[in-house]
UniProtKB/TrEMBL annotation:
Record organism: Sporothrix bragantina
PROSITE patterns noted in UniProt: DOMON
InterPro entries assigned to the protein according to its UniProt record, in alphabetical order: Cellobiose_DH-like_cyt, DOMON_domain
Protein known as: DOMON domain-containing protein
Comp. bias regions, Polar residues: 397-406
Amino acid sequence: MASVSNIHISQLATTIAINLPPNNNDINFYMTAPTYYSWVGLGFGAQMANSFMLMAYPASDGKHITISPRLASGDREPQFDRSYRVRLDGNSTVDGSYMVVSGTCFNCRSWAGGSLDSNTNNQPMMYALGPSTASGTSRIASNDQGVTLQKHTAYGRYLMSTIQATGYGGTGVLTSIDNQVNTGTQPVNTYGTNSPNGVVIGDHDTLGLAHGIIMGVATLVLAPVDVILGGGRLLASFPLIHAICSLFYLLLLIAGLGTGIKASAEYVATQHFSTAHQVLGFIAFFLGLVLLGLGIALHVGRALSSAGERGIVAVAHKWGIRFLWVLMLIEGGLGLQLAHASLGLMIGYIVFAGASFLAVVFVLACLWCIGGRRSRTRDGVRTAGIVDGGRGVFNTTPRKSVNSRKTSGDSEPVIIPDNRHPRYVEPSNGMGTLNKVLI
């Protein structure tokens, strides 16, 4: 009888088998899984924390396989450990719609935090499959053994007989097994009602998904509205709407920051918060807090009057809102790239974000033109009022005919008929033109 312990998970079309050579600490392994999944992994232990894993995915040429020995700490992404030596044999390849992984892990029966019991019929084991391209995740094709892997979409546990797996045979025995025959045990139901057959299918990175949805709504829905309402003239007309929109905007930023921090802690590439997406995210959040403070100062100080609209605080608030939105548009693209989103999703985001940006620019330009025309009209009216006692110099409306009045000292005003025109004549007393009198 072959010294093999294997399991076939029909729901996932996946087969896993091992062989334990006697008198050493090596492990011969064999895995096949559909290329529908981005990666396949075999874990030694009852839970992810402190377990040892072998994770495989297509190499950069799309034909060969990259194998990565990793150690898991808590519920975080297992981290590549170069102290373990793994060799793949010639059977390892991407064969049509399947990944075939066959090889030997040398001195891998013990690791920091655990070990493999070589004399039991109930050795706890785990398996997992990475998210598929159908879920919006781009296919992994890398030679990097430390590449970031997205959270599994299917996983399960089973018990393996290491007694049955111990013996000579090597990887050749493993690759000749019948995928439909299990010499090990079936997946065990350790997840309650979530795994009636011992398999969990449809598991997703819920934190990352929540973060993406929250920030998508904030960036592509609320932010454009906030930018338009904060443009000055509309702000003076609808201050309450702008305040409510800004409040929801800030709440979404807080929720996005919280889910982003929590999700970042699960992955090796993001747990140090040093990626461009994370750094810009923190900058955007604190800029949002500053803009909130400026907005409150504007309202409390009644600076949104005609004079306040041109104040430095109002200008900083208005342009700060616009800069924050542009920063968040860039943030969205960096986030999709960090999440290994599919090319179609990336293109869709770029098109939608670009269209939103152009639409907002167009609306702001229209508001500026309308406001400038009204301002020029008001300025023309004011200028006309200064000249000619408040009557426009180009005002051709005739004055109403009124009777003139003339007073002399404290005497009663004398009415001069409208058809009488004053004229000057020389007096007969010879006083000259200096003594002109009005008759």
